[in-house]
Design brief:
By secondary structure, this protein is an alpha+beta fold. The chain contains 9 helices and 8 strands. The structure holds zinc ion (ZN).
């Protein structure tokens, strides 16, 4: 890559920056004329070397008549404002571009624009909320289809945002956002569902305990009955002693 200035960051100096002021003041004062060049048969000029490279980023080498000096000029594509510079001819297009960037311009192969035009064209930034990866979003929608009761606007028993997030290995924030977009707020605080789940669990345990205890009581009664039978059927003598 021969022209690496394309990726330069573009710091914008303040409009009242002395360089900008000087530049804006000077731009009308410089009278320039095209320099003599070698020409093709059809009269078009043949740029060479540095001029050819500089031309790629919109620069033209001109002669400053008044000061009898060489100037490099570039013209803003937006407003037509020229910017003329007395850089040494030994400079490189890279440095030319860098200099312009410092002045707030964008100068590269495609764009040559002044600070004012850049600021005018800068879009008003709407806050961009990055959405989740579409694949992840689809999986979340699928999980909500399965575990969310749309009519009640509640998760089905045993599920909530955190559990969906954990089951899909995504962040809870994304699940909450998508669930809210799709179904709105929950009909009630999820704590109630948790409490209901706990209650249901205790009821089930109670029922199980009841069954287990009933069978233990039955066993117990059986033992009692067995002993009563044994005593009843024992010899009369023993019975008298008792
Ligand atoms: Zn401009």
């Amino acid at each position: 890559m021969r022209l690496p200035w394309k990726n330069l960051p573009i710091p914008l100096p303040p409009r009242e920056h002395p360089i900008i002021t000087a530049l804006l003041a000077a731009r009308d004062e410089i009278k320039v004329e095209e320099m003599a060049h070698k020409t093709r048969a059809d009269g078009s000029r043949i740029p060479t070397g540095l001029e050819a490279d500089a031309a790629l980023i919109g620069f033209k080498k001109v002669h400053d008549v008044e000061h009898n000096a060489t100037r490099w000029t570039v013209v803003c594509q937006g407003c037509g404002t020229p910017s003329a510079h007395g850089w040494p001819t030994a400079t490189s297009p890279t440095n030319m571009a860098r200099n312009m960037v410092r002045l707030g311009w964008i100068v590269d192969r495609k764009v040559q624009k002044c600070l004012e035009c850049i600021e005018k064209e800068r879009p008003v930034k709407a806050p961009v909320i990055a959405g989740p990866d579409p694949k992840i979003a689809r999986r979340i929608y699928a999980a909500l289809d399965e575990h969310f009761d749309e009519a009640k606007r509640l998760y089905r028993s045993g599920w909530d945002d955190l559990k969906v997030a954990a089951s899909l290995e995504v962040s809870a924030e994304i699940v909450i956002r998508i669930r809210k977009e799709a179904y709105g707020d929950l009909a009630e605080d999820p704590i109630f569902q948790t409490l209901r789940d706990d209650l249901e669990m205790l009821r089930m345990e109670g029922a199980e305990l009841g069954i287990r205890m009933a069978s233990q009581i039955e066993e117990h009664h059986a033992k009692i009955t067995a002993l009563e039978v044994r005593i009843a059927s024992a010899p009369a003598l023993r019975k008298a002693v008792c």
